[in-house]
Specification:
It is globular, with a radius of gyration of 19 Å. The longest helix is centred in the middle third of the chain and has 7 residues, at 135-141. It has 321 residues and is mainly β. A hairpin with a 5-residue loop joins β15 and β16 (205-211). The chain is built from 7 helices and 28 strands. The strands form 4 sheets. Strands 2, 15, 16, 17, 18, 19, 20, 21, 22, 23 and 26 form an 11-stranded mixed sheet that branches. Strands 5-6-11-7-10-9 form a 6-stranded mixed β-barrel. Strands 3-13-12-27-28-14 form a 6-stranded antiparallel sheet, with helices on one face.
Length: 321
């Protein structure tokens, strides 16, 4: 059995717009493409709830996937996968195997062809989410008139040393492995702060942070739509909370109320985050326990977008400005 730890996303049920900066929702406007020699640009678009969506071709069928650094692999809606000819092996009536995601065993299938425009990823294994396990994912994958069919996880992103520019309509995949990366030089010339990105033993990515001078780590999760901190940690630091009508639902089915806290001295690496209010909730243990590392929260797309984040899987760095 394969084992895959998927960090779970916070699903805001009520009042999500109160947590999202207004310009995040305008991210779909045409943005200037950053030029990266040796990389191929893949267009993305932004949907409601800060979703970064890429259209891929699975066995030559178009599919909309969320770009998700919190997932270790591609996960597809099982019903949609059938329409992409992603089925059990021709030599048997079962799938290739099983993978465990947050305590759920999901079947694993084989995709013959995975492409994005002229970029070919070859064949790939994917996890399939059946209808009886979909309830906790459905709100996250729904996209108004454009159905989201799953997530594009870190296996593809790391393999192709992706650069995710959270402020533009492109992600970049390295096609010339011999060409040295110029991301750091570009970002530093634009006065970005470089922060080391660490991959934990369970596959998630974290960065160092401090709140009120207390050190911790945040999980970098482009599939997490709202930056959310653990309630116990925040209360221990004396940060007062105000209740909201919002709640958070996780893919395990757990639902927790969300509060708001004023963070005046949040530092990520050496980057001082401007004072702002962020979501606070009782995060489940599978969010907090990242292998031997304990996180204090999720760094989601709202703050990544606002801080003009660039995630570079070649140098394993996060750049904020």
């Amino acid at each position: 059995m394969l084992r895959n730890n998927l960090l779970r996303h916070v699903l805001i049920v009520l009042g999500v717009l109160a947590f999202a900066p207004p310009d995040t929702l305008a991210a779909g406007k045409k943005a200037q493409q950053m030029q990266l020699p040796g990389y191929r640009a893949i267009p993305v678009r932004y949907g409601p709830l800060n979703k970064m969506i890429v259209t891929l071709n699975i066995n030559e069928h178009p599919a909309n996937l969320i770009v998700d650094t919190g997932a270790n692999q591609i996960i597809l809606d099982a019903d949609a996968a059938q329409s992409y000819d992603v089925k059990p092996s021709q030599h048997r009536l079962t799938y290739i195997g099983l993978t465990e995601i947050n305590g759920q065993l999901l079947p694993v299938a084989f995709v013959r062809s995975l492409t994005a425009g002229s970029m070919s990823f070859g064949s790939s294994l994917v996890a399939l989410l059946p209808s009886d396990a979909r309830s906790s994912f459905s709100s996250r994958w729904g996209d108004g008139g454009s159905r989201v069919n799953g997530v594009l996880g870190a296996d593809i992103l790391v393999r192709h040393k992706a650069v995710i520019n959270c402020r533009t309509q492109f992600i970049f995949l390295k096609i010339d492995q011999s060409r040295p990366s110029q991301i750091a030089a570009f970002a530093l010339s634009k006065k970005f702060t470089k922060i080391p990105l660490r991959r934990e033993e369970n596959g998630t990515f974290t960065v160092p942070c401090s709140i009120h001078g207390q050190a911790g780590r945040l999980v970098v999760d482009t599939g997490g739509f709202v930056t959310t901190f653990n309630e116990a940690t925040v209360k221990s630091l004396g940060i007062s909370l105000e209740s909201t009508r919002a709640s958070a639902r996780f893919t395990s089915g757990v639902r927790r109320p969300i509060s708001m806290g004023q963070f005046n001295d949040l530092i990520i690496g050496d980057f001082k985050v401007p004072a702002a209010k962020f979501g606070v909730a009782m995060l489940p243990n599978f969010v907090l326990a990242q292998g031997t590392t304990r996180s204090v929260g999720i760094l989601g797309m709202d703050l990544l977008y606002k801080a003009r984040a660039i995630i570079d899987f070649d140098s394993m760095s996060l750049f904020l400005k």
